[in-house]
Write a structure and sequence with these properties.
Layout lengths: L1 E10 L3 E12 L6 H11 L19 E4 L2 E4 L5 H6 L6 E6 L5 E3 L2 E2 L2 H9 L19 H11 L6 H5 L1 H5 L6 H11 L7 H10 L12 H5 L6 H14 L6 H16 L4 H8 L3 H6 L1 H9 L13 H25 L20
Helix pairs in contact: 3-7, 7-8, 7-10, 8-10, 11-12, 11-15
This protein binds iron/sulfur cluster (2 copies) and FE2/S2 (inorganic) cluster.
Length: 347
């Protein structure tokens, strides 16, 4: 099969501009986009920089954007990319997003791994070490198994809309990793972790729920769902003195009260006090001028039914949280499960 790859190239050391370069190459029908890129490099242009190692979607090195979508080059078949709408028989290949380009398809991963390190992705047990190994209920490990499958490829980070506008955001990969350790019954520092994640600039409250990370993750880690769970756990643990938690509570309260969102009330209640509110006066004025702030907020007809739906949803959520706790882990740091090895590991 012949395929034309349009590759976005960049060599910042030599030239600040990026350019597109087309390569037509013959590859087997089962070839992946990475196979095609390596064929280009071997046969046509050895200056093309591609990062890869396992070629089996295990090592996480070959993340790139293929026709605009973040993906592993070694997991995306050329034929599949062409079927999905490669323009005129071409496959467009770009470096991963939200990371600086070092050269061509190789991006700088320093910031990415720095954020992963910031959530302390290792077990921190408390208390006496067991004589032998930790005993962990199967259910508890099954619960974290999917998150442990993360290969730190960065596809989620490449696709994250929040990171596009705020580089401080810890991002989906680091937060999914943080979730995995707050959920591990051997770890004794889940409260410290939740406090950090609630209060650090760019923590759990900066996700916009856009689902992009869930859609592109090659290992089905579902980072956004982990972030939502971290928020719930942080609020349940009492870490509510922050704008994110206030915003979430105000959002819920106004809908339960009037059946729809009272944006003015949500904005006012999301901030700590009048001083902080002053910072938002400009945004409020612009929103008002664009008709985004209704002058009067009235309850919708049938608001009571919405209130009943909110209450039912909360009862269901509380029930499943109790069920999950009963079926899953022992309390964090509980005797027999928590304290221990002094520096164990974990994926
Ligand atoms: S969560 Fe998924 S997309 Fe993100 S780094 Fe891990 S494996 Fe890659
Ligand atoms: S859901 Fe949140 S973490 Fe995931 S890509 Fe969107 S903003 Fe980023
Ligand atoms: S080369 Fe290892 S994940 Fe693609």
């Amino acid at each position: 099969m012949d395929v034309t790859l349009s590759v976005q190239r960049h060599n910042p050391d030599a030239n600040p501009a990026t350019w597109w370069q087309d390569y037509t190459v013959t590859v087997p029908d089962h070839a992946t986009v990475l196979d095609a890129l390596l064929a280009v490099r071997d046969e046509q242009d050895e200056s093309l920089t591609v990062r890869c190692s396992c070629r089996s979607h295990i090592c996480g090195s070959c993340v790139m954007r293929i026709d605009g979508r973040s993906a592993l080059g070694c997991k995306t078949k050329v034929a599949e990319a062409l079927r999905r709408g490669g323009a005129e028989g071409r496959v467009r290949v770009q470096p991963a997003g939200n990371m600086a380009v070092l050269k061509d398809l190789a991006v700088d991963l320093e910031g990415f791994f720095g954020k992963v390190r910031a959530v302390q992705p290792w077990l921190q047990p408390v208390g006496p070490e067991p004589e032998r190994e930790y005993l962990v209920p199967n259910e508890a490990m099954l619960r974290v198994r999917d998150a442990m499958a993360c290969i730190l490829c960065g596809a989620c980070v490449s696709a994250c809309n929040s990171l596009e506008v705020d580089d401080r955001f810890l991002g989906p990969a680091a937060l999914a990793k943080a979730w995995r350790f707050t959920e591990d019954p051997r770890d004794g520092h889940d409260r410290d972790r939740l406090e950090f994640l609630s209060s650090v600039p760019g923590g759990i409250w900066d996700c916009t729920h856009c689902f992009a990370c869930v859609e592109v993750c090659p290992k089905d880690v579902k980072p956004m769902e982990r972030i939502i769970e971290l928020r719930r756990r942080a609020m349940d643990a009492g870490f509510t003195d922050n704008n994110g938690a206030r915003h979430s509570q105000a959002f819920r309260d106004t809908i339960a009260h009037s059946g729809w969102l009272d944006e003015t009330k949500v904005a006012v209640r999301s901030v700590r006090g009048p001083d902080e509110l002053l910072d938002w006066v400009g945004v409020g004025a612009r929103s008002f001028l664009r008709g985004k702030v209704p002058l009067r907020h009235k309850a919708i007809p049938g608001a009571l039914r919405v209130t009943a739906i909110v209450s039912a949803a909360e009862r269901t959520a509380a029930g499943s949280a109790r069920g999950g706790a009963a079926a899953g882990a022992a309390p964090h740091g509980a005797p027999g499960h928590g304290p221990g090895s002094g520096g164990g590991s974990g994926a």
